[in-house]
Amino acid sequence: MTINVLFLGPQGSGKGTQATRICAAHGVPHVSTGDMFRAAIAEQTALGREVEPIVAAGELVPDALTVALIRDRIAKDDAQAGFILDGFPRNIAQAESLDRMLEVIGRPLDRVFFFDLDDATATTRALERANREARVDDTPEVIARRLAIYHEQTAPVVARYRATGTLHEINAARSVDDVFAEISAAFGWLAR
């Protein structure tokens, strides 16, 4: 049985931290579009050069490019048992594109986890991460821009998945261990 999961929530809500832990526990890859784009930028690949100014400005990479990147990534051998997708979709059009692509390849989402977190905590966490990881794309201005985009464009995605009955809401302000325990319990249910 495969487990195809999406993590949604604002930056700083712990999606990446939890994805790393869950992936290690369940043997599925963490498919982070942000990480894939940052790696391409660092390696100065053709994709990296194309998306670098977009990412630096805190804007969204074109949907078709991102969906193709995800499709290629989840076609790899390590994703055959499932995946945790993080960082995409960020708007309704992207959610529709993603769902269509996953349906075409026979890999629809089993569960969507929504990491609910207030803006002040999200900003503090994102700034701490920027300092810890020396991430140049996490400036206060870019964080504020991403949160504005999140509220304007991603909140409707949460509502969309809530309506499908696949959404599991998580209070992301709790400790890393408490959030991990809740997701692990849900993964146990999904794996049955």
Descriptive notes:
The protein has a single domain, classed as Rossmann fold (3-Layer(aba) Sandwich), CATH 3.40.50. Helix 4 (63-74) runs parallel beside helix 5. The protein has a five-stranded parallel β-sheet with strand order 2-3-1-4-5, sandwiched between helices. It has helices at residues 15-26, 33-42, 46-56, 63-74, 92-104, 119-133, 140-164, 176-191; strands at 3-8, 30-32, 82-86, 111-116, 167-171. It contains eight helices and five strands; from the N terminus they run E-H-E-H-H-H-E-H-E-H-H-E-H. The mean pLDDT is 90. By secondary structure, the chain is an alpha/beta fold. The radius of gyration is 16 Å and the shape is globular.
List the helices and strands and how they pair.
Blueprint: E1 3-8, H1 15-26, E2 30-32, H2 33-42, H3 46-56, H4 63-74, E3 82-86, H5 92-104, E4 111-116, H6 119-133, H7 140-164, E5 167-171, H8 176-191
Parallel strand pairs: 1-3, 1-4, 2-3, 4-5
Helix and strand sequence: EHEHHHEHEHHEH
Query: Mean pLDDT across all residues, rounded?
Result: 90
Overall tally of structural domains: 1
CATH superfamily: P-loop containing nucleotide triphosphate hydrolases
CATH architecture classification name: 3-Layer(aba) Sandwich
Got a strand count?
A: 5
CATH domain class name: Alpha Beta
Provide the low-confidence segments as ranges. Answer: none
Structural class: alpha/beta
Computed CA radius of gyration, to the nearest angstrom: 16 Å
Rounded to the nearest angstrom, the distance between the terminal CA atoms is 8 Å
Give a short synopsis of this structure.
59% of the residues lie in helices and 13% in strands. It is α/β, with parallel strands linked by helices.
